[in-house]
Amino acid sequence: MALRSGAMSEQVVRVGRRFQGPAQSGNGGYVAGRVGTVLAEQLGDGMVAQVTLRMPPPLERDLALAADGSGAQLLSGEDVVAVGKPVEAEFLADATIDPVSPEEARAAEASYRGLKNHPFPTCFVCGPANSAGLQLKPGPLGDGRTACTWRPTADLATGDLVDAVFLWAALDCPGGWAIDLEGRPSVLGQITACIDARPPAGEACVALGRYLGEDGRKTFTATTLYDADGRVLARARQTWITVDPALFN
User: Fold this and answer.
1) Residues of the chain with pLDDT under 70
2) Gene3D superfamilies from the xrefs (predicted)?
3) What residues are paired with 147 via a beta bridge?
4) Which residues lie below 8 Å from residue 184, measured CB to CB, with a gap of 6+?
5) Model's pTM, two decimal places?
6) Kind of pairing, strands 62-68 and 71-76?
7) Contact predicate 146/181, CB 8 Å
8) 200 Cα distance to chain centroid
9) What is the pLDDT of residues 96-113, one digit of tens each?
10) What phi and psi, each to the nearest 5 degrees, are found at residue 72?
11) Which CATH superfamily is domain 9-247 in?
12) What are the Cα distances from residue 66, in Å, to 31, 112, 163, 203?
């Protein structure tokens, strides 16, 4: 296991309402990204961060985040919100989804099911009711994949490049919509991600999701984010948990 030596990183995290998923909790991809990006800074070559959400992330509350090379933990008081651990990069070996053109991705957006029947319409990543969100519209390609475009705004960047946490967020919902979320409403349970490169604000990106399978209440997906030149920016695999949406709103 390749870890970087270093002291424990500790900080206070506060999930603002802008970054909600369901109405009463934080977006899973964004919150996992807050944990995963801190953990990834501690990891060496050949390792990536895997984050498991243990409870709905609370909004507008001070959360304690601690990480070193062995793992990370996000706490609300004594309650564990999320944990992160290093895993071998080989875990993402099959996570890269074959790309489509921006034109194909835009065409898929016209069939985005979340515009009419979204289980969590306030979602920061794909919720039509969250005007301050990313406004992704992952539509089906008809072969188990979804696709959409994304042009990250300047407020998501530090300096010239988009913050990695928002790449984690953008990797979230394109995978979720590869599931039949109307018949199988689900929330993110776990995400393993690798950020290969950060795009500048305004870059015309394409996000893709792919259904991998299911087991009981769990559904497995993968996502890939590409830049305007077709270069892979980020990759992820997710585990989703089927839920009753009424318990989260």
Assistant:
1) 1-7, 249
2) Hotdog Thioesterase (3.10.129.10)
3) 139, 208
4) 219, 242
5) 0.95
6) antiparallel
7) no
8) 19
9) 999 999 999 999 999 999
10) -145, 155
11) Acyl-CoA thioesterase, double hotdog domain (2.40.160.210)
12) 14, 37, 19, 32
